[in-house]
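B., you asked whether I could sanity-check this one before it goes into the benchmark set. Here's the sequence:
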Amino acid sequence: MGNCCLGGGGRRSNHSSETSGSSYYDVHRHVDRYDHGGRTRYSSSQAANVVLAAPAPSHNRMGGRRPHAHYDQEGHYAAESIALTPRPGTTGQGGRDPPTMWAYSANPNFDHHDQNRFGRPRVPGNPDAGPARIITDRHQVVQGMSYHPDGDETNFVRAKRKHRRR
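And here's what the prediction gave me:
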């Protein structure tokens, strides 16, 4: 299955920074829970489908409802961000330039449409966001994946994108 993301102007598009459904992100954690250990091979097409099913960015804050602004404090997406532009009419948060990237939960069971203003499930017991994020540009085109390393829920590590051998 090919990747499908939102293109410019909010229209559905087949364009993506991911050019092949045969690639995946190597995440050194489970993407759907905070327990220790585990490893997930998260396909590029799965990332695009999660984003496609989620709402478009609606604010520029680093926290709160998802997707939320991703300011790439670690510098993992420096090369990608050079070519990205902010949403028209947006401002940055805390003296920063306006964001050019947004973070979505990579947990396929997280409901992006049913969350409170803090980005947590409205219904107790529903799946939370988990430790992994799908990073997109303003048009919801996947740029990559990041995750909190085991035991560190503050910092992010960029997941390596790999290609399946045929």
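One thing to flag: The two ends are 15 Å apart (CA to CA). Otherwise nothing jumped out at me.
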